[in-house]
Amino acid sequence: MEQSEPIFKKWAPEWFVRVVLFMALLPSFAPLGLYASYSSYAAGYYGIEPADVQFSILAYYAGLVSFFPFDPRLSSYLLSRQYFILSVSLLVFVTWLCSLVHELPIFLFLRFVQGVIGATVGSPCLTLIFSRLDTSRARAMGYTVFYGALLTAGPVSTAIAGPVLEYFTFPTLYQIYILIQLPGALLLILILNNVRLKKRIPLYQLEWPSFLFFAVTLLSLGYLVSYGQKLYWLEDNSIRLSLVLALVFGALFVVRQLHLKRPYINLGVLRFRNFRLGLLLFLLFYLFRGTTGIATAYFAGVLRMDGWHLAALQVPTLLGIGIGMALTVRFVLLNYSVRGIWLVGFTLLLVYHVWMYFLFGPSQGPGVFVAPLFLQGLGVGTLMVPITVFTLSSLPPAISLSGSYTAVTARYLGFISSIALVNFFQLYWRTENINRLAQEVLPGTSQLTTRLQSYQQNLHSKGMDLGSAQRVATRLLENSLEVQSQLRYSMSYYGMVSVGIVLLLLLIIVLPPVRQKVLSFRQRPL
């Protein structure tokens, strides 16, 4: 940093600076899952299919991930306050446009741009977080805060969206998001001095080709997992084209990085064994977290919870994440065994999945899910810090930024992989369960007749005529079969993930000792 003037105003206490930084960072990730748990609302407002809604979420994510390596060049050109004001203004403007458009191609483009601008907000915040920590602690803590914001963005978005959509129209959700973005942004602008965070680099020889190759690769993979199941995978021309684009542009990106003097992402990070192991853990971690969407679908589809109850169920998850990260970061800074922390974290996730497996039912109350959801958040928070520190601490400082960009990419790949698995097994198991139920309850059998008669008599006793009662009873029976199918699918997927976690725990136990680079923290632990 070139300036002699401090980055923040002298009157701002340290605790206030850190709170403001987190308040400014979190909203830049919130649009990622802004309507993820309420995709039917988004589909109804834009007149699109659920797969389109899913792809719009991945378009934002692809923009965020692909532009992160590009942002340091841009942010160095302007003074910190100017750059942040510009980024927040653009993010607010694009968010407002998203609430106005109804054409799918324009909406998808705006979502990608929204992700790009989200990176220009998040990256400077990350740099400012580093500025508040001494050098030895910055690498361990800065990215932990970054991934912590990513972890909490989903539950926070769900907690906000539920009550809003319960009473207001869908565009109001964007307006509420804009209002949430402003307090942290305005406070950060208020306490920032107009200084430069790094040496100014002229805006020439920008690595636009690498950004383009990277973005097309991520978008093509996102399209593949969003529409593959719906379009029967390689039987559809657009799916084949997206696969070809992902392979070709991915290969072009890799080849270009290997020949650039200053690569967009230094792929030399993959030479480090611990870094590769950390990426694998990241991938598995986000695969296991894919069950949260299934739980939300169960709460809304089977238990018919309203927005307020869904929002309330995010509180124990957020509380668990906060407590888990706060405790684990202390253990990491005190050089506790990383393997031991991994075992504790994945065991907590295992308990959560097994507990939920036995809780799935057609008539549960919201209160019974508070404890398992807290355990899930606690497990997630416990794992994020040691995985992040283990992965990035194995790299030399010169390429640590490339390591962080690669880790974010692994997070994206884990996220889309979980979507692909959920989409595949949802169709497979629900179809199998419906066929099995249909065989168990065949037309003309006493079981089917008894259930239909029960529905008919109940409706008829409430004043409905016999013909209408028969039609409504048939629909009620179909809904009952659908609920049973969803319950069996949810149990099957949670059971499969539980087995996967058990296998990973056994692998962590039997692996030879991990050669962990010992981190030295000269200041007192957090």
Automatic annotation (TrEMBL):
Which Gene3D superfamilies does the record match to this protein?
MFS general substrate transporter like domains
Q: What is the protein's membrane topology class?
A: Multi-pass membrane protein
Superkingdom of origin organism: Bacteria
Bilayer-crossing regions: 15-38, 53-71, 83-102, 108-130, 142-162, 174-194, 206-226, 238-256, 277-299, 311-333, 340-360, 366-392, 412-429, 493-514
Q: Which residues form a coiled coil?
A: none
Q: Which InterPro entries match?
A: MFS (IPR011701), MFS_trans_sf (IPR036259)
What is the official name of this protein in its record?
MFS transporter
Task: Please name the source species.
Answer: Hymenobacter cavernae
The opening ranks of the lineage are:
Bacteria, Pseudomonadati, Bacteroidota, Cytophagia, Cytophagales
